[in-house]
Specification:
By secondary structure, the protein is mostly beta strands. It has three domains: about 5-100, Immunoglobulin-like (Sandwich), CATH 2.60.40.10; about 120-245, no CATH class; about 260-445, Aldolase class I (TIM Barrel, Alpha-Beta Barrel). It has six helices and 30 strands. The protein has helices at about 240-245, 265-270, 275-285, 320-330, 380-395, 415-430, and strands at about 5, 15, 20-30, 30-40, 50, 55, 60-65, 75-85, 85-90, 95-100, 120-125, 130-135, 140-150, 150-160, 165-170, 180-190, 195-200, 205-210, 215-220, 225-235, 260-265, 290-295, 300-305, 305-310, 335-345, 360-365, 375, 400, 440-445, 455. The strands form eight sheets. Strands 11-12-20-17-16-14-15 form a seven-stranded antiparallel β-sheet, with helices on one face. A hairpin with a 2-residue loop joins β11 and β12 (about 130-135). The longest helix is centred in the C-terminal third of the chain and has 18 residues, at about 415-430. The model is unreliable at about 440-465 (pLDDT under 50). Belongs to the glycosyl hydrolases 36 family. One of its GO terms (molecular function) is galactinol-sucrose galactosyltransferase activity. It catalyses: Hydrolysis of terminal, non-reducing alpha-D-galactose residues in alpha-D-galactosides, including galactose oligosaccharides, galactomannans and galactolipids; alpha-D-galactosyl-(1->3)-1D-myo-inositol + sucrose = raffinose + myo-inositol. Keywords: Carbohydrate metabolism.
């Protein structure tokens, strides 16, 4: 672990407008003093020290106005501090962060895609700083050049890792070689314009993005056309990006626990070996108090990967779910919320058809590359209603819903309909129950396959006795 962390790091190259500020943060576990940013961020471009403000012995902060600095100039920065009576520099000689100040950009014209397979459907100016354009793609298999992206400054894309996972891919100055399909790409060009490209597939056709020799391409397959979207804005601002993506809903109310306190998820440390004793030990070992806890995969009653009941596994949680949650909250008073993991269809391989599944008319479906079928039910709404009521009784505050099992791995023509039924069953159980988990915000479904991501407002009615 590095003795001192600087953000933005010394390998960063930032683009800034004169109206913006350059903001820096430092975290360290050392006893340090004299923490100062050394930079030539000034009109004369001379190197000078600017002390950071200490908010605690570990946290430091600095905000610099860029309003008086000329544009189209590149500036540098590094960090110096004192530790054990010695003056030290962060990084090595010549390893400096960079900031280029550019003039506020203008929105570019509507992207022109020279292909007979592409039809411009709509172009919407969201405000003076943002636009969104929609294209319809003809059915069939196509490779369509979209744009020259050689002027890319920095980017982030979502690449398909498997049938159930999208992974982020990012970089600066050049696109890394990646043969995986991309379904979303956001990048800033060297003028400061932000470009957002994404593809809307259907159950019968799919499209994805790919960069080849600095040219962004759209690849399509299938019998029905896909939709392509392109958004532009003049600032990497969250509200503008969300407006481009079509999310015009009001921001969710901030949650005092998750926005304020440190949280702990059992997965990385304990994996499937999770039990109440190990959770108790982990919470006690943390130097900072934890405000919320996620008990991840491994807590459920299950047989051969299929859910057999709503309570916790008694071998791992001898007090049951209700007793275990009460014990953890009593022994760790800082805990304000405890949530549990479950898969979209109960557990990894669904619901056990010979036990719990009997209550909801069980059925089984084969999975690609697996000898074990998944246990589904014909009445997912009834299952979720009972499931969440049981969790509420046990004192669960929220859930983490995982799309493990992957709808795209089901060998069923109706697999997307089944996914939608389960997703709708979960959200309906929330909405109908007025207060399914005593929370106002939502937890994201971990379901990053195409068309399979959503947010669920989860509240639970009732409380443990």
């Amino acid at each position: 672990m590095q003795p001192l962390l600087l953000f933005p790091a010394l390998d960063s190259h930032l683009l800034k407008h004169p109206s913006q500020s350059a903001v820096f943060y430092v975290w360290t576990h050392l006893q340090v003093s004299g923490v100062a940013l050394w930079t030539n961020l000034c009109a004369s471009r001379t190197w000078h020290a600017v002390p950071l403000i200490a908010h605690s012995p570990s946290w430091f902060h600095l905000s610099l106005s860029l309003a008086s600095l000329p544009t189209n100039q590149r500036y540098q920065y590094t960090l110096k501090y004192h530790h054990d009576g010695q003056e030290k520099w962060l990084g090595s000689v010549g390893e400096n962060g960079a900031i280029t100040i550019v003039a506020p950009p203008s929105l570019p014209p509507i992207p022109f895609i020279a292909s007979p397979h592409v039809t411009l459907q709509a172009n919407r100016r969201i405000n003076n700083q943002s636009t969104r354009t929609t294209f319809k793609i003809d059915q069939g298999s196509h490779v369509i050049p979209l744009a020259d992206v050689s002027n890319m400054h920095s980017y982030m894309a979502l690449a398909r890792k498997s049938s159930s996972w999208l992974v982020p891919v990012s970089g600066m100055a050049r696109f890394e070689k990646d043969g995986r399909p991309w379904y979303f790409l956001i990048y800033m060009d060297n003028t400061g314009v932000v470009w957002v490209w994404w593809v809307k597939s259907t159950p019968f056709a799919t499209g994805w993005l790919h960069v080849s020799s600095s040219v962004l391409e759209l690849h399509t397959q299938g019998g029905h056309g896909v939709e392509l979207f392109c958004g532009t804005t003049t600032s990497m601002d969250e509200d503008r990006i969300m407006a481009i993506l079509g999310n015009n809903s009001k921001k969710q109310q901030e949650d005092g626990v998750m926005d304020t306190y440190l949280g702990y998820c059992t997965w990385n440390a304990l994996g499937l070996d999770v039990n109440v004793a190990l959770i108790d030990q982990a919470l006690a070992s943390l130097s900072d108090l934890v405000g919320y806890l996620i008990i991840d995969d491994g807590w459920q009653q299950q047989h051969d990967g299929r859910l057999t009941g709503f309570d916790a596994d008694r071998g791992r949680f001898p007090l049951g779910l209700v007793g275990s949650l009460r014990y953890l909250k009593q022994h760790h008073p800082s805990l304000r919320s405890i949530g549990v993991w479950h898969a979209l269809w109960g557990s990894w391989f669904g619901i056990d058809p010979s036990s719990l599944g009997k209550l909801y008319e069980p059925k089984v479906a084969a999975l690609l590359d697996s000898k074990k079928p998944v246990g589904l039910v014909n009445h997912p709404a009834a299952f979720y209603k009972d499931f969440y009521q049981a969790l509420a009784y046990s004192g669960v505050d929220f859930v983490k819903i995982d799309n493990q099992g992957a709808v795209d791995d089901l060998i069923l023509a109706t697999r997307h309909e089944i996914w939608h039924q389960y997703r709708l069953a979960a959200t309906t159980a929330v909405e109908v129950s007025l207060s399914l988990f005593d929370r106002d915000d939502g937890f994201a479904i971990i379901a990053p396959s195409v068309g399979s991501s959503s947010r669920v407002s989860i509240r639970v009615e009732g409380e443990a006795e």
